[in-house]
Design a protein that fits this description.
two-stranded antiparallel sheet; D-Maltodextrin-Binding Protein, domain 2; alpha/beta
Length: 297
């Protein structure tokens, strides 16, 4: 049995498809099938039921999948520890980032990290806060970078940067013409929201509850870009991270509302499992994140 066989098997199980696994592994489909047959011959068991559309894992296959994941993890740890002893920074980091961080903060941090650590492969998944945390809990991701509060006892949370939330409105909106907007003026407005599970949505919900605001109508978008475009087109008002609208504010396509001269702040946080066992590559990335403020002064 080889490490390659196990890695290919795990990929097929997770992709639930031979063609997708082959493409991901940069192998031919017949080559992938051969590796799986070798494993089945070695264990004298059927590991997968094949069909044209999907792969179904047998009970024996489920046992091997769990053990294969463990063996691959131990192999990668051993390899990384040996590289660490030689001061070689290598390996793969799987990062999950919520949309605001993934689109506006992480690229700049990753650019410098990649220049300093060329032997490290970084895989980034951009999803909403709730999804990132769930994938940290299931060990699908190594590090999570999320916005807003995290109420989950299964993970460790370390704030690393402040984020200012602002109210925005179409440039021709009545409220956009005022120097100061009183909270009661926000009653019965049309609002543009992010989807449930988003850190931005959670902050907006708390803001609405705090001010006891009634909503005339609302629209939901799954990205900050969608919200910006909707507000710019006059669809309604929204609360959003200042990071996401700097260009639009400068261009004047949307306006910032001054709510009683208040400043609304939340935190960006690093999320990790409680016993991560990080490699040197991971540790250096975390150091980069902890010093993020200096990149954006």
């Amino acid at each position: 049995m080889s490490i390659d066989n196990l890695r290919i098997y795990v990929t097929v199980v997770e992709q639930k498809n031979f063609s997708k696994a082959a493409k991901l592994l940069n192998l031919s489909q017949p080559n992938v099938s051969l590796h799986i047959r070798n494993l089945e011959n070695e264990f004298e068991a059927t590991l997968l039921h094949r069909s044209p559309k999907q792969v179904k894992v047998t009970e024996e296959g489920k046992i091997l999948y769990v053990k294969a994941k463990q063996m691959l993890s131990l192999y990668d740890e051993a390899k990384q520890e040996m590289n660490d002893r030689k001061n070689i920074v290598q390996g793969t980091i799987k990062i999950g980032a919520s949309f605001t961080i993934g689109e506006y903060i992480l690229p700049k941090l990753l650019a410098e990290y990649a220049r300093e650590n060329r032997g490290v492969t970084v895989e980034v998944t951009v999803a909403n806060t709730e999804e990132v945390i769930e994938r940290i809990r299931s060990n699908d991701l190594d590090i999570g970078l999320v916005e807003g509060e995290v109420a989950n006892a299964d993970v460790e949370v370390h704030p690393f940067m402040e984020d200012e939330m602002i109210m925005i409105a179409p440039a021709n909106h009545t409220l956009a013409q005022l120097k100061v907007v009183k909270p009661e003026m926000l009653q019965e407005e049309v609002w543009i929201w992010r989807e449930s599970g988003s850190g931005t949505r959670a902050y907006s919900d708390r803001f609405m509850q705090e001010l006891n605001l009634n909503v005339k109508h609302s629209f939901i978008f799954s990205s900050s870009q969608g919200i910006k475009e909707a507000v710019s087109e006059g669809l309604g008002i929204a609360m959003i991270s200042k990071w996401t609208v700097r260009k639009e504010l400068q261009a004047g396509t949307i306006k910032r509302l001054n709510i009683n001269n208040r400043k609304f702040v939340r935190h960006f946080s690093l999320v990790q499992s409680k016993n991560p066992g990080y490699s040197k590559a991971h540790q250096l990335f975390i150091v980069k994140i902890e010093g993020a403020d200096r990149f954006f002064d």
